[in-house]
Structures are given as C-alpha cells and as structure tokens.
Amino acid sequence: MLVSPKILLEKAQKEKYAVGAFNTCNLEITKAIFAAAENLNSPIIIQTSEGESQHGQITKIATLIRKFIEESKIPACLNLDHGKSLEMVKKCITAGYAQVMIDGSKLPFSENIALTKKVVQYAHKYNVPVEGELGLVPTPGQKEIVSEKEREKAMTDPNLALDFVKKTEVDFLAVAIGNVHGFYKGKPVLDFNRLGEIKKKVKIPLVLHGGSGIADCDIKKAISLGICKINVNTELRVAFTNALRQILKDQKQHIPYEYMKTVEQAVQKVVEEKIKVFSK
Ligand code: G3H
Ligand code: ZN
C-alpha cells in the first residue's frame, strides 16, 4: 500500500524507530524486500540509485516496484536514492517515484544549497518530498578519507545543517557522522555527540546512509538520537552475489526461476535482520 514517505518518516520520528530503506535493481531483490517486510508486518522504503534506476530502465523498474507496493498490505514507497541532477529527478517523478533524494554533498555548500533548492521547488509541485545531504558519506574506491582531520571536515556541521534546511526546505536530511558507504575497513566510529547537536537544531527526519556493517547497538543509539530512515544496500548485494555464486558452482543448476528462490531467501534474511534492529 502506497503511503507518503512524509507520513512514514514522521511517524517513525515520533515513535522512535527507523524505517529501512533498501536498494533494489531487479525483480528478485524486490521480491525479497517485500517478502521480508510482509513477514514482519513492517513499513519499508524501497529505492533505486541512479545506476540501479538506469539498469532497470527507470520507467520499467518503477512500474514493477509500484505494482509490488500497490499489491502489498504493508506501508511502502519508492525513492530515488542519490539523485545527482534535476534531470534525473524529473525522470523519476514522471515514472511515479514518491520521494527523491538529491545528493549535492560533493559540491561546495552554496552550490549544494542551490541544486537542492531547485529540486525541492520542482518536486514539491508534484507533492514529492525531497531528501538532501549535507556532509560527505564517503564511498570506498571513490574518495577515501584518510586523516582524522579530513574525516572531521567531511562530517555534517550542525549549524550549517540548520542553515541548509532553512534555505532549501528539504523534507529529510541525510547526515555524515562517520558513516561510510560499503563495508568499513576498521570498526565504524559514529560521532553521536554530533548527531545529538544536529538533532537539537534540525527538526525534520534525519537519515543515516551506509547502513551496512554498523553494529546493532550503534544503530539503536543513532535511532534514539533522531535517525528515522536507514539506507542499506551493500549487505543485500553481497547476500545476493554470494548465494548466486554458490549455486552456480553446481553446473547442474540451469533454471533461473528455480535457483533464484535460494538467492531471494538469502536477501530476505538480511532484510529481516535489519528490520528487526530498526524496529522499536
Ligand atoms: O544510499 C544507500 C546506502 O547509503 C547504502 O549504504 O551500501 O553501505 O549499505 P551501504
Ligand atoms: Zn547512500
């Protein structure tokens, strides 16, 4: 059942839990995400990054996911994850995405504001809420942040966060508090003081990217400090790939709709584990 992301996240914010936002790029991962959410009777956000949207040819994957949402009893909506341009946002809104993220986090502050504001002005005409990002959540392999000083510099500044939200009128804010996309090299260290400071200034729902590899107790603490949407992708991709690799070792397997069941179950298991941690 389609439920507005604003309603989903404002309820989560009020009741102090987080909605899992899970990435998909195909039928099997989509099936697994819905199976997990339905099993646990939990709301979810299902999302595609720019690359995943393009792989699914945007309107085709959007139509598929929207059908799952429409036929499911659990509250759900489709989000564009890490949109990089107004053009991409326009395409996704036309294809029926209920929420969009514009990621201007690599841009200088004023340019991030300008791009995000432009997207908000466009998306709000269609009643589509927008997630913005301030501070950089690094992606290994793209830009490694090595020194402590650089790590600090990349994190969300609470005062700038307030300014960013006021000027752009975004509906949700993704923060950088030591979280990283993909698996961490060492133990992830989240800056909870910073998150607390951001929360004091910013009243809209806060989003934690890089949900893979964070310890359950840190997830719980982040939720208690105001995080109400948590993005998870890498752990699903790894579960999918490892299960498939294992199956294909057996040369007798050649009927995709048979062996894909095992792959779906592997992804479903990860999604269920995450939902349980994110719930109250
Ligand atoms: O936007 C997607 C997420 O931030 C996923 O991060 O791949 O580390 O789980 P992850
Ligand atoms: Zn992300």
Architecture overview:
The protein has 280 residues and is of the alpha/beta class. It is 52% helix and 15% strand. The protein has an eight-stranded parallel beta barrel, surrounded by nine helices. Helix 8 (158-168) packs parallel to helix 9 (192-201). The chain starts with a helix and ends with a helix. The protein binds glyceraldehyde-3-phosphate (G3H) and zinc ion (ZN). Zinc ion binds at residues 82, 137, 181, 209, 231.
Please give a handful of descriptors for the protein shown.
single chain, 280 residues, alpha/beta, 8-stranded parallel barrel, 8 strands, globular, binds glyceraldehyde-3-phosphate, binds zinc ion
List the helices and strands and how they pair.
Layout: H1 5-15, E1 19-23, H2 27-39, E2 44-49, H3 50-55, H4 59-71, E3 76-83, H5 86-94, E4 99-102, H6 109-125, E5 130-134, H7 148-154, H8 158-168, E6 172-175, H9 192-201, E7 206-208, H10 216-224, E8 227-232, H11 234-249, H12 256-278
Parallel strand pairs: 1-2, 1-8, 2-3, 3-4, 4-5, 5-6, 6-7, 7-8
Helix pairs in contact: 2-4, 2-12, 5-6, 8-9, 11-12
The protein binds glyceraldehyde-3-phosphate and zinc ion.
